[in-house]
Each structure stands twice: as structure tokens, then as C-alpha cells.
Amino acid sequence: MVFSSELEAFVQHVDQAFDRERVSTFWPLESALRKLLAGPFATQALNQQLRELVANPAYTGAWRPNQLMLHRGRGFALSIHLYEASRRYVHSQPFLAMVAPLAGAPLAYARYELPAEYRNDVFNPALRIHTPQIGEVAVGELLCLHSDRYLYDFHIEAPVPMLRLSTAPFHSLEWLFNRETGYAWQANDSEITATQLRVAAYILGKLADPSSVEPLKQLSEHPHHAVRWAAVQSLGRINRSAAVERLQASVDDPHPHIRRAAAKTLAQLKDS
After folding, report:
1. Residue 150, Cβ neighbours under 10 Å: how many?
2. Measuring CA to CA, how many Å separate 28 from each of 34, 86, 109, 141, 149?
3. How far apart are CA 180 and CA 162, in angstroms?
4. pLDDT, tens only, 57-101
5. Which CATH number applies to 193-271: 1.25.10.10, 3.30.390.30, 1.10.3720.10, 3.40.50.720?
6. What is the pTM assigned to this prediction?
7. Pseudo-torsion of CA 167, 169, 174, 180, nearest 10°?
């Protein structure tokens, strides 16, 4: 994407000032983002995209459903989203972000404090969120999303174009909470790559080709606990001794769900 001078200057500033290994360097970017918001960069970026589409019908650009990715850098992303409707559940966000409505009425939101016992990578349906704080953010103003401490639930009455500057995900899961009861309902992978790896492991287990043993053993050491377990399960469909080896190692896995599942599976194998 060809940047306007304002957008190019902002991206260069973030590249230099933000360290993905130190999330504390994210919040000082607020003043530069406010300066960018004061200009017409969003209109310019969208006009450019429309010109590209008219000139080349096969052009896909950086579009996703309801989102234009303006720039993806080292550990951060700048994008324009269209928020069309309120979500059915209250979602946790696996990244830090600053968002700003670009048009329309002020955007109302509810901010819930995360439960004290919350650990992102260990889903617990007994956890519950309680009465939120209510606020709103005006067009052109920034809202800082401290997603390591809070949940944010936007109330959308009419579609709202939003600018979002966000870090890369630093949590493995995105939790969903029931708005009526407050209880945790389910958790999804925060990154599509984790889901893709789990699906790949499952298919390899179904195909059961011995050539997949080594790749699955490597995958069983993946940072994401669900990917590790999917690899171990598929090993069990291909090579029992390799699976037992990984199960024995998984008894000491850092994730409690993996430790329990491995111990239970080993006990079942012993009794069979």
C-alpha cells in the first residue's frame, strides 16, 4: 500500500519506538496516533484502495471482511474496521489496543474487570465477570484498551468505522463471557495459526502414515498447549511407543489440563 506522508511518518515512528518484547513501549505511541487522527489519512487510504480496485478488478489489496489493514509491522498492526453490530458475548482481547471512532455518534462501551483468578491459557467456566463501568468515546478520540486487565464490550446501534492500533497477540486464547450471567462460556485460539496446526495434526492422525511421527513429535513441543495435545493424540493413532514417550513427558507439562489428560491416558493404557 502506498502511504500518505502522515501515515508513512507514523509507521516509521512506531517501527522505531515500539519494542514487541516490551509491551510498556506501546502506550507512549498515543500522542503520535492522536496526531495522525487529526488528519485525513483514513479518507486518503480508502480513496487509494478504490482507485486500485477500479483500475484492476482482480486487485485484493489488504482487505479482510470488514477490515482494511493499513500496515502490519514488527509486533503491531494499524487497521480500519467497520463495527456493524454488538457481539452476542463479551470477548477478551489477546492484544493491547488503541481505538478511535472515525465517524458517527459517540461509541458507548462497558468495561469489565477480569476476575482475579483469570489465567488466559487455562479456561475455567466457573469464572465470572460482574457489573461493568459504562463509558463512551467520541469521534476522533482515542480509547486505550488495557486488555491485560479488562474486557471491553462495545454497544453498536449503527455501523461505526474504527481505527485500531494493536499489538500482536500476547495471549493464546480469546475468552467469551455470557453477557446475562457473567460466566465464562468458551475460549477460542487467539491466532488462526494455532487452529490450523491443530487441524493439521488431526488430519495426520487420521491418515496414520509413519512418516508423520517425527513432525508430530516436534509439534508436541509447540508453545500453544492445545497444539501440543493435538500432536500427542495423533501420535497415538500412528505409533504407540512414540505416543507413550510424549505422554510421559506431558505429565510434567506446564499446562494443568495437559498434565491431567496425560496422566489419565497413561493410566488407561496401563489398564488396557
Report:
1. 17
2. 11, 29, 23, 16, 18
3. 26
4. 888 888 888 999 999 998 999 999 999 999 999 999 999 999 999
5. 1.25.10.10
6. 0.88
7. -10
